[in-house]
Design a protein that fits this description.
Elements lengths: L1 E8 L3 H8 L6 E7 L4 E8 L1 H18 L15 E8 L4 H19 L3 E6 L5 E2 L1 H7 L20 E6 L3 E7 L4 H11 L4 E8 L2 E8 L7 H12 L4 E7 L4 H5 L3 H7 L7 H5 L15
Helix pairs in contact: 2-3
Length: 283
């Protein structure tokens, strides 16, 4: 069983809902943020039906989205921006195969250049930040045209372990302070960026090893630096493994933006879910 997290450059919640309607039964969660101009659609299922649903979603997204007029604070390469595959049974090779098949399909059918991240055929591992930094400069696409699609840009397709996307909203905090917080959080287990949103700064985190450094540890670090009263709220983007919640006192779940209903197990059941949900993930 695989998880596929389609990060799309989508202007509105209404448009995100339209796209979600084409994602089929594999769709388990849909998150949209207007300030980011981004929709995150979490698909989970066996590989064959998951591929069918992803292809349908990607075709409709390619027909409806146009990056040339897109606005949003989130960095982006394209309309079908970032699509990682995650094995929920601890088999990263299965995620790599699914990524490579999807990359060939996106490049051939949609005519969109694709950059790969995660394990590569030469034995190296490329990270998503590396793709964002080097794309079309000293890094050529791995599949498809050598130039960005005029309307859809490019796509980054990855294979990785469990990752949790989680954000903090801050109040009475300047952007300079928010950037300092993000810098202080960054490390082998956390990627963090600061964004200026309409309601105030946000520190957006990718928790690479969420069972080692999870929302509670990040929240406590920010509260120790700024004071807890300056943390407006927290949100989970997508789904998290239930094991993450089991590391946190239930009394803290609401404050951290966590709930049992937003776990992978709650959306698909625990049958067939294996060690990938029980240990740390990978970038």
């Amino acid at each position: 069983m695989l998880e596929c997290v389609a990060n799309l450059s989508v202007p509105s919640r209404d448009e995100a809902d339209v796209l979600g309607a084409f994602a089929g039964p594999s769709l388990r969660d849909l998150h949209h943020d207007a300030d980011h101009g981004r929709a995150v659609l979490t698909l989970i299922g066996e590989i064959a039906p998951l591929e069918v649903d992803l292809h349908r979603l990607a075709r409709v997204a390619a027909a409806r989205l146009d990056l040339t007029g897109h606005v949003g604070v989130h960095p982006r390469l394209g309309a079908l921006d970032v699509v990682p595959f995650v094995s929920l049974e601890g088999d990263l090779d299965a995620a790599v195969r699914a990524r490579d098949d999807a990359a060939a399909w996106v490049a051939t059918v949609l005519g969109v250049p694709v950059f790969l991240y995660g394990p590569l055929a030469d034995g190296t591992v490329r990270t998503l930040p590396e793709v964002r930094r080097r794309a079309f400069s000293d890094l050529a696409p791995d599949r498809g045209p050598g130039r960005a699609h005029p309307r859809l840009g490019a796509s980054a397709l990855g294979a990785r372990g469990i990752l949790v996307a989680w954000n903090l909203r801050l109040r009475h905090t300047t952007m300079d302070e928010a950037r300092e917080v993000a810098r202080a959080l960054r490390g082998p287990h956390v990627r963090a960026l600061a964004f200026a949103l309409g309601a105030g700064p946000q520190v957006s985190c990718n928790l690479l090893d969420p069972l080692v450094v999870g929302p509670s540890e990040v929240y406590d670090a920010v509260a120790a630096r700024l004071g807890e009263q300056r943390v407006e709220g927290c949100e989970l983007v997508g789904l998290a493994p239930r094991a993450l919640l089991e590391r946190v006192e239930p009394a803290r779940w609401a404050r951290l933006g966590l709930s049992d209903a937003a776990t992978i197990e709650a959306r698909v059941g625990s049958a067939g879910l294996g060690p990938a949900l029980e240990g740390p993930g990978a970038p």
